[in-house]
Amino acid sequence: MKGKITHNMGLKVFSVLIAVITWLVIINLADPTKSRSIKDIEVEVVNDSLDNYVYEVKEGHTVDVSLVGKKSVVDGIRKTDLRAFADLTNINEFDAVPIEVEFKRNIADAPEIVCNKMMKVSLEKIEEALFNIYATPEGTVDEDHHLGDYVAEPNAINARGGKSVIDRIDRIYVDVDVNGADKNFTTEVEPRAYDTAGRLVESNNLAFYVDGNQVDTVKVNVKILDKKEIEIRPVVTGVPASGYTHVRTEVVPESIVVAGTKNELSKIDFLELDVNIDGAVETYEQNVNNEELLNRLGDLDVRLVEEGEVVTVRALIEMEPMMTQPLEFNLVQKGFELRNNDGWQVAVVNQEAIYKMDLRGLRGAMENVTMDSVQLFVDLAEVTKPGRYEVKLQYELPEGVECVSDEYLVEIDASRRPTVD
Fold first, then answer.
1. Per residue in 256-277, pLDDT tens?
2. Buried b or exposed e, range 32-58, using 16+ CB within 10 angstroms
3. Among the CATH numbers 2.170.120.40, 3.60.21.10, 1.25.40.10, 3.90.380.10, which is that of 226-318?
4. Exposed/middle/buried for 331, CB within 10 Å: 0-12, 13-18, 19+?
5. What is the pLDDT of residues 329-340, one digit of tens each?
6. Is 33-116's fold the same as 226-318's?
7. CATH class of 125-224
8. Which helix (H) or strand (E) holds 165?
9. What secondary structure does DSSP assign to 86-101, as a single string?
């Protein structure tokens, strides 16, 4: 039996070796070894809690690796199957940390991962400083409203980070979106740090703290005010010098817009400005600036919508005497204009009536005034149906001329204008 086993032993061993080699060749031909690169794998930093120090990654945010293994396995691996990390406890004297790469899941016949890269970081001591918070509005509130106060709460915040970052910070701002706002509101806003040149200071290690607690946002309270247009009324006191006449008083602008709460705005409809022309021999002019206007508004908690607004009050003083001239007219003969006429036909009830108009003005303005200089009209805006109406007779006069007569009321019959087929 033993003889049979050992008979031709060399040939038998040779046959086995040939079989193994043939098997290995077939296997390698069917699934050969392959090398493949995977690029731009995000590198995670671990164990990054460093006592009194912060770090900034200078190089090595991503890494490229090579996979060496069976083609069937290598081809099936994706970037998402790999985890790259740098452990800061392994930092060397050159502030470099080895980047390690591993598989996120178990892979049969896992290929070799080739990575000889380092992450370079910079270390610096942590510093903290207190800064005031400045709120800045962005956008425009609703057109019927005005932006009031906008205040951050709290109004100061601690910034913590590397010394070089903290040294760059000049101010902390919170940008508040007020676009379209029509009522008071409170919002949470992310604080941002800026340097003296107005450039944003950015760092992964910059954080903000309030009362020792890290915060990502700051509360900002925003007040939205109502607006109101108020008339400027000049109050003229005194009389000009003998032989001079106060012609008229002009105000530019004739009104201003103020903002405040509904309650405060309800307390004011006009603003009076004193104009003293006593003994004047020339035109009096006064410019009232923003601060003076607010002072004249007294204790009202309102503000001017237009900053830097100046109101000019001018009392025109001339030597030329005043004249008064009476004019008589019949309304039907003189004729008048119908304004805001929505298809009405109008007839004067008392067509025989004679009206008297007393006009007054300076001699130069009155010299050529006749009834042809006067344009009469009635406003039919209140006429809504056929019938009899009592309307006010109105007029337009030449510049510098005024009517000192009582107002005129005229009875008219209004009917619909016939339509033409």
1. 999 999 999 999 999 998 999 8
2. eeeeeebeebebebeeeeeeeebbbee
3. 2.170.120.40
4. buried
5. 998 898 999 999
6. yes
7. mainly beta
8. helix 163-168
9. EEGGG--TTSEEEEEE
